[in-house]
Specification:
By secondary structure, this protein is α+β, with helices and mostly antiparallel strands. It is 14% helix and 14% strand. The strands form 5 sheets. It has a 4-stranded mixed sheet with strand order 11-10-9-12. β7 and β8 form a beta hairpin. The termini are far apart.
Amino acid sequence: MRFVRTPFVGSLAVLMMVGACAQNSENSADSETVATPESARAPFDSSMVLIEGGWFVMGSEEAFAEEHEGPAVRIEVSSFYIDPTEVTNAQYARFVEATGYVTLAERPLDWETLKKELPEGAPRPADSLLVPGALVFTPPTQAVPLDNISGWWRWVPGTHWKAPEGPGSTWKGREDHPVVHIAYEDALAYAQWAGKRLPTEAEWEYASRGSAEQARYSWGDEITPEGRYLANFFQGDFPHRNTVADGFECTAPARSFPPNQRGIYDMIGNVWEWTSDFYRPDTKTLYADGTHCHNPKGPSASFDPNDPYASEKRVIKGGSFLCSEQYCSNYRPTSRMASSFDSGQSHLGFRCVRDLAQP
């Protein structure tokens, strides 16, 4: 089923903007720099997987693809290293312990910042909403219309990476699960501490492919070859009845499913992953003129026609445990979505890459 994106509707629009825009971001993501003391930097990571550079077809024009996945264009990327797994809670905890970093979801909210992202004259939300928190997936007890995401997303004050379902929840016991509720700035800060960076969309898509072939999924053209689940996504009736046929209702521990042919885990499903590219729906059209064929880094600014007031959005890739054939079948290498740079959610994480020239 082809997924059609729809603008946010009803009160959730305000809730999303509160969660995505109002946290006090001291560092602009445009700067691509978050200060980290040299003495606090992480040791060299020898576990990264080498991705040999080459040409590949980026994007898709197949019937199952969304319009913003195309046109398909030939792209060349240079060799690079990539994390074998999504960054886990344990890894992020080591970063926070070493640096004292505080994520955006934990910071005070500011109405003056928020209203810049809203239409002129938008009413101030209730004070009860102007508190640190994040959006949490909350499955309804029965079927709900799929054109209003407020049916399964809930703004929960006190939610952040250490309390992923809100107050009373904890990441303890999920040390090897991907860290979530991470905004772009939070991912960038970790990457710089680790001596790495976030991947471009082209690098991510190239690494996600298990081979040079233009297969629908990382492993081939069948979603469950011979009945085997090779990624963590939603089975059953979305969003209220998850049959958990793949073994996981929410996030799965790293390495729960086989790696792709490049030796990388969970490039598809589990959690969406940040890339460094600004989002535009026509990015591949910009590449099609042949001037961005080598190591493309995305457009110079973002624009999302479904959210024209957003100041900055980045491309996220890979789909998540919430992707479903009934609603959002984005568990494919060419799939892409837009996410506000200061938004963290319960199905969004990241992994890092490193250039060969780095020590």
